[in-house]
Specification:
By secondary structure, the chain is of the alpha+beta class. It is built from 28 helices and 17 strands. Strand 4 and strand 5 form a beta hairpin. Its main location: cytoplasm.
Length: 737
């Protein structure tokens, strides 16, 4: 059997998202709007399979055919007859549920591959003897032959997502290196093109010279005669002696489905802003234009307090090894009015709270653009995983001048982060009950501060294309050096493009640190209804949770290549290091032996030193983070951040040894079962599923009732067309592009 870190355990937690009451309160028109947006999101989410690994689309297609022909209960009888044990069949169901939940065979949180926890030959017997195989023997056998070996393979390069020799990714062809990624980013910057909706493919010509294809995601292909802002960009370029070709049409049939449902949703929009927003999204996905998506995002920001909230596109860049390309995601949710009222109070206090942050006023945005901040109950969240909160859009220029929105996903928080006492690791016994009682409330506070005042704070110093600066070069002083500002962002440069591989984690660390720092403010805790001893417990558990998370983060560090696989967890480890460095016994991490005789550890936080020792340490760190970000000082930012993110076995903590303990006692992240919506006549019905691996599988089996087989064929055709770029087992001829 495979190493435990590469399997999903049979007893993995599975929870269902509950949005029944919020959906019930929608009007018929609002339900239709939510339904079509959900359909658009689910269709678009299929692109993630093509953004993850060469084999993911084939695995998805194989399992979808399998469970369409036989539901999990029916397939169980066949599997047991083929000689599988109950445990082995459950392992298969968990693996299949994991594929659907992560939209591929790599964990969305940590980017580690997971493989079936049963013998390959037994799974082969189940698949080739299934009803699906009886109905379409050649098709099912072909899918298995294409993905079976890769499904189980744990050769070193395939264990994690990464670039070049460090892992696998389908954002880049398999022969691309980090140097190719940097060159491509410089090319994109020179043409003022965003990387968000692109992939990079490298070929080598007969003379051995590389030729790069930058492919944009769009419905239309390069040959389209329809003129738009994008058509003039679709051509060949010479850049630093290298040939680049900008094309489009990536994921075209999938995005066509997205566009069709966005068009239908427009008919049920609540106002003109929503109509204009959807029109621009349609333009973006049709033409491959990020500028159109930005225009749509402007209308989205202006659409304050909608009953049905949504966002869709190529959004988060966590899984691009270079940190610039966005994974497709789409969400649809309904407002939770009670918690939203607290967040609105936080927004009202934001300008005053921003003044509490430990950097000079010149390093803060010229004007705080008061955002929407709502607590939402998620109906649909497509992509590779569901976060607890979101601060979007991610476009720096919009965030600086137009603003942003914050959302906290209330029904996700309610199920994904619930903790059982017996599964609580690395805490003192007398901390556990307090932790369980206050983790939820403290997390609400942390998410609110993290999203609104973490991601929502700070100014980037920019020189525009005309040479004008957005700060006074004469008077603004760097508080770390006492000198005038020496570096800034040039036209076309963004936070992601400039800080690339550390951008996501660095920013998450800054936002988490802001949350810890401002949760000490009594005004903040009063907004959430906490005073006196309760407020002190919320502070303590919030800080304790961050310290424990820093230790748990070691699961996501790969010592073989000295790299982190998850931005949020790297950020939490960095904060742990900062607090340990503060000294005076504020935080200690001590190896112990568990009651089972195996290695264990305990984290301790001295609650009496949070303000006297922890706050000053965090203050110094936060100021440095912001100053380096504002000034675009990549060298200084890397030195600071990578220094704290280094994992060694140096005493007293011996983190590499502790990593083995963390892996020994890790608990897998929960799988989340989401509902479906179905149009019956003119009414939209909500379809819910049980909280189990089988329930999750059923939800996907019923997700595309009209065109499931067609979609699976589309996915495999798209994967096969590009298979040569990863030397993936495929029927594609060697010259096919």
């Amino acid at each position: 059997m495979a190493d435990a870190q590469y399997i999903l355990p049979n007893d993995i937690g599975v929870s269902s998202l509950d949005c029944r009451e919020a959906f019930r309160l929608l009007s018929p028109t609002e339900r239709l709007y939510a339904h079509h947006l959900s359909r658009a999101a689910w269709y678009g989410g299929l692109a993630v399979l093509l953004q993850t690994s060469p084999e993911a689309p084939y695995i998805y297609a194989l399992f979808s055919r399998l469970f369409r022909a036989q539901d999990p209960d029916q397939l169980r009888q066949h599997a047991l007859a083929e000689g599988l044990t109950e445990e082995e069949y459950q392992a298969f169901l968990v693996y299949a549920a994991g594929i659907y939940s992560n939209m591929g065979n790599y964990k969305s949180f940590g980017d580690t591959k997971f493989v079936p926890n049963l013998p390959k030959e037994k799974l082969e017997r189940v698949i080739l003897g299934s009803k699906a195989a009886q109905q379409n023997p050649a098709e099912v056998r072909s899918l298995w032959q294409t993905c079976g070996e890769l499904m189980f393979s744990l050769e070193p390069r395939l264990r994690h997502l990464g670039l070049g020799k460090e892992g696998i990714t389908t954002y880049f062809s398999g022969n691309c290196t980090m140097e190719d990624a940097k060159l491509a980013q410089d090319f994109l910057d020179s043409q003022n093109l965003s990387a968000y909706n692109t992939r990079l493919f490298k070929d080598v010509d007969q003379d051995g010279k590389p030729r790069y294809e930058v492919r944009l995601a769009s419905v239309l292909g390069t040959e389209s005669a329809l003129h738009s802002e994008m058509t003039s960009r679709l051509k060949s370029y010479e850049f630093r002696g290298n040939h680049f070709q900008v094309t489009r049409g990536d994921y075209a049939p999938i995005l066509q489905k997205v566009v069709e449902h966005l068009e239908r949703a427009k008919a049920y929009a609540a106002n003109s802003r929503q109509e204009q927003m959807l029109a621009q999204y349609i333009e973006s996905f049709t033409q491959g234009s990020i500028e159109a998506h930005k225009r749509g995002s402007r209308f989205w920001i202006q659409d304050k307090g909608p009953i049905v909230e949504s966002y869709i596109g190529f959004i988060e860049s966590y899984r691009d090894p270079f940190g610039s390309r966005g994974e497709f995601e789409g969400f649809v949710a309904m407002v939770n009015k009670a918690m939203s009222a607290k967040f609105e109070c936080l927004v009202a206090s934001a300008e005053q709270l921003l003044k509490e942050l430990p950097w000079p006023p010149a390093f803060e945005k010229d004007k705080f653009l008061s955002p929407d901040f709502t607590s939402l109950d998620v109906l649909t969240f497509s992509g590779s995983g569901i976060p607890a909160g979101i601060n979007i859009p991610n476009y720096d220029d919009l965030r600086q001048t137009e603003g942003f929105k914050n959302v906290s996903l209330g029904n996700v928080l309610a199920v994904a982060y619930a903790t059982q006492r017996e599964k609580l690791t690395f805490l003192e016994e007398d901390d556990k009950d307090l932790y369980i009682r206050w983790k939820g409330p403290s997390f609400d506070v942390q998410v609110g501060l993290h999203e609104l005042l973490g991601h929502g704070s700070g100014k980037l110093f920019v020189q525009d294309e005309k040479g004008a600066f957005n700060f006074d070069q004469e008077t603004v002083i760097n508080p770390e050096t006492g000198e005038q500002i020496q570096s800034w962002y040039r036209s076309g440069e963004t936070w992601d493009s400039k800080f690339s591989t550390i951008a996501s984690s660095y920013e998450e660390c800054r936002a988490e640190s802001v949350g810890l720092y401002l949760c000490l403010n009594p005004q903040v805790l009063e907004i959430f209804g906490f005073e006196g001893a309760d407020a002190e417990d919320v502070i303590y558990v919030n800080w304790l949770n961050m310290v424990r998370a820093g230790l748990l983060a070691l699961e996501f560090y790969t010592p073989e290549v000295s790299s982190w696989r998850q931005a949020h967890m790297q950020a939490r480890f960095v904060i742990l290091r900062v607090l340990l460095e503060a000294g005076e016994g504020l935080v200690t991490v001590t190896p112990t032996t568990g009651t089972d005789g195996r290695p264990d550890a305990r984290v301790r936080l001295d609650r009496n030193k949070i303000r006297s020792v922890g706050k000053p340490a965090l203050e110094r760190f936060l100021r440095r983070l912001q100053v380096l970000k504002s000034t675009g000082d990549v060298a200084g930012g890397r030195a600071l951040y990578e220094g704290y993110a280094a994992v060694t076995d140096a005493p007293p903590e011996c983190f590499l040894t502790l990593r083995d303990t963390v892996l020994l006692r890790k608990e897998s992240r929960k799988l989340i079962v989401q509902p479906n919506t179905r149009l019956e006549g003119s009414e939209v019905q909500l379809l819910e599923y049980e909280a189990s691996a089988a329930g999750l599988i059923q939800s996907f089996s019923e997700r595309f009732p009209e065109d499931g087989p067609e979609l699976e064929e589309t996915l495999t055709q798209l994967a096969t067309a590009d298979a040569r770029f990863w030397k993936c087992p495929s029927e594609a001829p060697s010259g096919q592009a």
